[in-house]
Amino acid sequence: MADDCENDTPIRDQIIAQPIEREMSRSYVDYSMSVIVGRALPDVRDGLKPVHRRILYAMNDLGIPYNRPHKKSARIVGEVLGKYHPHGDTAVYDAMVRMAQPFSLRYPLVDGQGNFGSVDGDSAAAMRYTEARLTKMSADMLADIDKDTIDFVDNFDGSLKEPVVLPSKVPNLLVNGSAGIAVGMATNMPPHNLSEVVDATIYAIDNPDADVPELMQFIKGPDFPTGGIIHGLGGIISAYKTGRGKIKVRSKTHFEEKSNGKAMIIVDEIPYQVNKERLIEQIADAVRNKDIEGITNVNDESDKDGMRIVIELHKDAMESVVLENLFKHTQMEITFGVINLALVNNKPMQLTLRELIRQYIEHRKEVVKRRTAFDLDVARKRYHILEGLMAAINRMDEVIELIRASKNADEASEGLQNLLSIDADQAKAILDMKLQKLTGLEIDGVIGEYNDIKKLMIDLEDILAHEGRVLQIIKDELVEMKEGYGDERRTEIDPNAIDSDEEDLIPREEVVITITKDNYIKRIPLRTYKQQGRGGVGLIGMQTKEEDDVANMFVTCTHDYIMFITNTGRLHWLKGYKIPEGSRQSKGKPIVNMLPDLEDGEKVVNTISVSEFTDDKALVFCTKSGIIKKTILSAYGNIRSRGIKAIKLEEGDELISTGITDDTNEIVIATKHGQAARFDEFEVRATGRDTMGVKGITLSGDDEVVGMTIVKPEDMILSVSENGFGKISVVDEYRKTHRGSKGVITMKTTERNGSVVAISKVCMDDELMVTSKQGKMIRIKVSEIRVTGRNAAGVKIMDMRNDDKIIALQAISSVRDDDEIEEPDA
């Protein structure tokens, strides 16, 4: 004992001196990396954390795919704990429950049977009561896992192997997202629509250098399982370009009216991960604390058909104001902080949308290549055996005689190898062959299989030799995923949303809005255009595309609502500052980017700006065939994302002109052949939005309406012809007729003048903006145009060169010198 003690190394020599700061730092880094890699962050390739991957793999081992009966959840949890995940059973069960909840995952990976919780925050039943199996999508996540497509590592005790990553035919990280808190970092990735992700991935395969704006042609933004409305594009663009962004998600709501006339706000969808029961309590607390006024009652009327939260209002409450307060004070609006953090080669990286898609494509390339190599190896082994069988078939009588003469299997095997020049594996296959294989039909089957395998090997070798074929296989499989699981987007995106506090920062100024025939739009500060004398050639107001002409222009304020009325009779509106600003020479931006829901062939033909939508004013519409219609302005205050129907049109007709009136005016309708009908506004009865209207003027021959204006008897009307001539006449010179008459002459349409292209009410203090087909604009004073009789030919107001033609004019009321333009009162 004493000798042993003398031979032992002294304790002091076993101590390693180490500064505590260095040791603590090293230990903490080791711990944090263990949490990051082993628990909290998803792998960029399959979008799964280790616990989720182990659950799916264990369920696959248990043999419970989507087309087999469910198994008890406790059995599944025990399998995961005992084989792969040595942690608490609650953690495993909670992870499995989340993968089964349709309100947590956009595309659930587990098919649960029993109580798996609710959007109200109810917990799932105990694992001994519930059952589960894989979904069909999970089967595609695991497809080909047995073909050496991915690497395996030892489990926690080295007794089994578990996958490092799943083959994942589905781009799961993008379509289902992920959330997790590690040490010193976190991930919070939103789900997306599978169809959009597939389209973007295929585009990225075909266009490897595609940037984020190109990919966003397909992926519009996150698509949450609970729907809702994403408020604005800024957060989405930031998240996709940098890997981080803040996305505002609002509840989807609509208004209803009770039988007693009181209004109700109906909540149809709530933001992602918001507890519905807690939201209702939050609304009630806000009402009690006087944070929100105007609410009398809140009821949850949700059922199996969908969500329905009913918020009843006081009879004097303004629905829109109450709704904005609900967004402000409750979780009816949340901010989803996007953090695209995932493991790339076991290292946490913040990824852009382009990098996320590229990493998935690289993963699938490796999977397809390894699967192809595996299939090729299997085919080669079978081909080798078939070569032996073919050799035996060709010398069948000798083979049979040799086998009969052999004393045992070893002697027969050796004899076959010598007779047929084959190896031991091939000889064994011949000896194992059943007698039925000697029939003619079976021999033909062997020959057919031999030829098929030979073709298969050539095809598999070609795939491995050409990356283009690998990429085509990936695209084909993605298309299969889209056809199998693709669905409609649930979350709407409001691209024009802007917070009121942001809106207050937008300066108020007068601007000129120009729109081309091909629907390009821009805004320019009004002070950009200097006055010119009558007959000037004009400044270039827009650099138009080849064969594109300026179709409309008008003056408005940045904070006014601009109503866009299309040739099909639909109406959209935007705030003035939403129109992109451009220079005088720029062509502007496609209006379809501002109004993305325009249908094929639909173009904006009229625009009107208003500061608010009231009941004491009305919109008057006039069509090319002379139909006129009137509807109160307030009917157009709530615009849906796809716009609303402003007027019903007959087939072949289209909208020409729109104006605002207050029921005390007269209407003048002018045609291209120089006729004008003047009649009292009250002859047009106000009707609802989706109505057709009545006849305003009777047309002769090929004549058609070119414009309509709202006037009083003492007003003056400017008529302009296509060749640059204009004239001003007092309204009273036009004999008043009734609605539907042929009217009187407003301007002579001679060869010099050309056809009438527009009319407008003007004052002598006004200025005019006149626009030509070639994009030139001129700004002149109305007082420079002589007031003449109704039948006069007019004077030249703009010099037309190179077959240019006037196509639009806009009167600007009481414009001051540039230095004197003031901002209007708020």
Short description:
With about 850 residues, the protein is α+β, with helices and mostly antiparallel strands.
How would you describe this protein?
With 826 residues, the chain is of the alpha+beta class. The chain has four domains: 41-168, Topoisomerase II, domain 5, CATH 3.90.199.10; 252-331, Gyrase A, domain 2 (2-Layer Sandwich); 363-485, Topoisomerase, domain 3 (Orthogonal Bundle); 500-815, DNA gyrase/topoisomerase IV, subunit A, C-terminal (Neuraminidase). 31% of the residues lie in helices and 25% in strands. The protein is built from 21 helices and 41 strands. The strands form twelve sheets. The chain has a four-stranded mixed sheet. Helix 14 (353-394) runs antiparallel to helix 18 (440-465), helix 14 (353-394) crosses helix 19 (467-485) and helix 16 packs across helix 17 (424-432).
Write the SSE topology:
Elements (H helix, E strand, L loop, with lengths): L1 H6 L3 H4 L5 H21 L9 H13 L8 E2 H11 L5 H12 L9 E4 L17 E4 L1 H7 L9 E3 L6 E3 L8 H5 L1 E4 L4 E4 L4 H13 L5 H4 L13 E3 L2 H9 L1 E7 L1 E6 L5 E7 L6 H13 L6 E6 L8 E5 L5 H11 L3 E7 L1 E4 L2 E4 L2 H42 L1 H10 L3 H12 L3 H9 L7 H26 L1 H19 L6 E3 L5 H4 L6 E7 L3 E6 L13 E2 L9 E8 L3 E6 L3 E6 L13 E2 H4 L9 E7 L7 E6 L3 E6 L11 E2 L9 E7 L4 E6 L3 E6 L13 E2 L9 E7 L4 E6 L3 E6 L13 E2 L10 E7 L4 E6 L3 E6 L13 E2 L9 E7 L14
Parallel strand pairs: 8-17
Antiparallel strand pairs: 1-3, 2-3, 4-5, 6-7, 8-9, 9-14, 10-11, 11-13, 12-13, 15-16, 18-19, 18-21, 19-24, 20-39, 22-23, 22-25, 23-28, 26-27, 26-29, 27-32, 30-31, 30-33, 31-36, 34-35, 34-37, 35-40, 38-39, 38-41
Helix pairs in contact: 4-5, 9-14, 9-19, 14-17, 14-18, 14-19, 15-16, 16-17, 18-19
